[in-house]
Design a protein that fits this description.
The protein is mostly helical. It has 14 helices and two strands, in the order H-H-H-H-H-E-H-H-E-H-H-H-H-H-H-H.
Amino acid sequence: MNGRTDSKSPPKDLMEQWDKSLKDAENRAEFHGDKLLADRQVKLTGIWHDLWKVLHPRNVPEITRIAIELLLGQGLDVTSAAEVVASFPNDSKARSQIIQAQVQSRYDKMLHPPLTYLGDAFQYRAPDGKFNSVLHPHLGQAGAPYAKTVPSKAHPLGALPDPGDLFDRLMAREDVPGKRGRQSPSGLSSMLIYHATIIIHDIFRTNDSDKNISDSSSYLDLSPLYGYTMEMQRKIRDDKFKLGLLKPDTFAEDRLLRQPPGVCIMLAMYNRYHNYAATQLKRINENGKFSIPAKFQKPVLLAIADSSDCIPADRRDDQFLQALEQYEAAWNKWCKQGRKQIDEDDDDYENAENTMEGVLTLRGKADKMRDFRVAHEAAWNKLDDDLFNTARL
């Protein structure tokens, strides 16, 4: 059908010919894969073959000069040594090692720009593309003018053709009775068109008031999924669990709603893969990078209740312990429900939360609890940002 490739296999005789060509290859280990790919891996020569090439009459003056200067303690004659090394075969292992060592030595002596700078701004790339480059943090960011790299060879027309007429002439097709479509003459899958649509909307988003300005960055950073401003990004990010997730099956670019459904499906798949990546990062937690301090790991009300700085021991009476037990049970039930109400009458968690808030207000130290809430939220926001931006990479 249209947009789908024909899944015919190669002819049997052609497959047998390919198999025979592989079996007849003299050195199959010299290739990455098939000999038909011509991706030949040349075997490097050893020291004896190198000496055979070096000990040539034309190299006698250079070898003699090197030996004399070494005997006189004048060091190695670099020019003569370079002439000798140049006489090594092109596929010489020793020649490759010597050249690599010289290049690495000169590279290490050069001044290099820093890999990164300190500060939160340089930790991750911003939604609008800033700080993708440490040396040029504003290069390619959203809101910059389009760049022109080639001269114009044609003058623009005075009047543009009607878009509807172009669509009807180039893209519309006649429906054939009894058939749902036609096979693509080029053999291309519609999946390619879906990806191309995402790429086009990723790179090009011309400003409505100034046609010279691009509202999206110049990077292929999946801005149709993540957005190109912090405001757009916040709308699709999950703010409930603080685990670097996106809201299920959402994306930022509303222009794609007018495209074929397959484009939106591809973005929904990218959304799900992002959430999978963020979940795996948290589960693996390599070197403890995605960790919360122990005192902030529980929900904020339970964490405050556990803090002796917020709730002194002499204020933990039976009423406090009863409210704490009820709230903890309601919280566990709330989490099993996905932190949402089952029906309109499901207010157990809300009641337990209000009761716990009142108990903490009466027995806790107001200034300590306020500072604890700020620190608790900051710790979870940092975890959320770290997981989100790492999964976005």
